[in-house]
Amino acid sequence: MTESDSLIFNTYENEFNTLSAEINDTIENKLKKSVGEKKKQLLNQLERELDEADEIVSQMDVEIRSLATSTRIQLQPKIKQYKSELDGLKKKLKATYNDVTEERRQLLGEENNGDNIDIVIGELDNKSKLQKNTERLINSSKRLQNAHRMALEAEQTGASTLNTLYGQRQQLEHAQDTLRSANSFLDTSTKLLKDMQRR
């Protein structure tokens, strides 16, 4: 891995670790103490931050695909770890939200509205799937572009080879004509010598 590649990947890592710590702190401390409008604001914030963290992991995944195989194998476990950590944060958010909501429901006699957090988590998962599908489409497009480029290069190489062969054929034909002319001249010279000897 070059210094530039290492710097880019490390930057993504630092961003993810910082954001992950902030999300975890918000879930474990701030969300448990919040009510009403404040809780809604925190949920919106967590949704944005989890979405951003998902995007960072996707960027890291894309980044390592352009690296050497040995480096890619070395970094893949980290990507898997970050994806697992992100899934853990989503589950923790859901569990914490449901716990807080259940406590409030029991205290105030409200109906269970835990479906809200399921919608949030579901939207995040759908965004993650959409990002993965987009990445697959981008990679497929790149493979098609590479295949097209290789086909054009092969076509150009073939045309160049044909031109070279055509030139060589012309040279051979010219050499054959020269050889025939030389043979004809030699035959004529031989006849003249024989005629001179007879005289």
UniProtKB/TrEMBL annotation:
<feature type="domain" description="T-SNARE coiled-coil homology">
    <location>
        <begin position="129"/>
        <end position="196"/>
    </location>
</feature>
<keyword id="KW-0812">Transmembrane</keyword>
<dbReference type="GO" id="GO:0006891">
    <property type="term" value="P:intra-Golgi vesicle-mediated transport"/>
</dbReference>
<dbReference type="GO" id="GO:0006886">
    <property type="term" value="P:intracellular protein transport"/>
</dbReference>
<dbReference type="InterPro" id="IPR038407">
    <property type="entry name" value="v-SNARE_N_sf"/>
</dbReference>
<keyword id="KW-0813">Transport</keyword>
<protein>
    <submittedName>
        <fullName>V-snare-domain-containing protein</fullName>
    </submittedName>
</protein>
<dbReference type="GO" id="GO:0031902">
    <property type="term" value="C:late endosome membrane"/>
</dbReference>
<dbReference type="GO" id="GO:0000149">
    <property type="term" value="F:SNARE binding"/>
</dbReference>
<dbReference type="InterPro" id="IPR007705">
    <property type="entry name" value="Vesicle_trsprt_v-SNARE_N"/>
</dbReference>
<dbReference type="GO" id="GO:0005829">
    <property type="term" value="C:cytosol"/>
</dbReference>
<dbReference type="InterPro" id="IPR010989">
    <property type="entry name" value="SNARE"/>
</dbReference>
<dbReference type="GO" id="GO:0048280">
    <property type="term" value="P:vesicle fusion with Golgi apparatus"/>
</dbReference>
<dbReference type="GO" id="GO:0005484">
    <property type="term" value="F:SNAP receptor activity"/>
</dbReference>
<dbReference type="InterPro" id="IPR000727">
    <property type="entry name" value="T_SNARE_dom"/>
</dbReference>
<keyword id="KW-1133">Transmembrane helix</keyword>
<dbReference type="GO" id="GO:0005789">
    <property type="term" value="C:endoplasmic reticulum membrane"/>
</dbReference>
<dbReference type="GO" id="GO:0005794">
    <property type="term" value="C:Golgi apparatus"/>
</dbReference>
<dbReference type="GO" id="GO:0006896">
    <property type="term" value="P:Golgi to vacuole transport"/>
</dbReference>
<dbReference type="GO" id="GO:0016236">
    <property type="term" value="P:macroautophagy"/>
</dbReference>
<keyword id="KW-0472">Membrane</keyword>
<dbReference type="Pfam" id="PF12352">
    <property type="entry name" value="V-SNARE_C"/>
</dbReference>
<comment type="similarity">
    <text>Belongs to the VTI1 family.</text>
</comment>
<dbReference type="Pfam" id="PF05008">
    <property type="entry name" value="V-SNARE"/>
</dbReference>
<dbReference type="GO" id="GO:0031201">
    <property type="term" value="C:SNARE complex"/>
</dbReference>
<keyword id="KW-0653">Protein transport</keyword>
<feature type="coiled-coil region">
    <location>
        <begin position="32"/>
        <end position="147"/>
    </location>
</feature>
<keyword id="KW-0175">Coiled coil</keyword>
<dbReference type="GO" id="GO:0042147">
    <property type="term" value="P:retrograde transport, endosome to Golgi"/>
</dbReference>
<dbReference type="GO" id="GO:0012507">
    <property type="term" value="C:ER to Golgi transport vesicle membrane"/>
</dbReference>
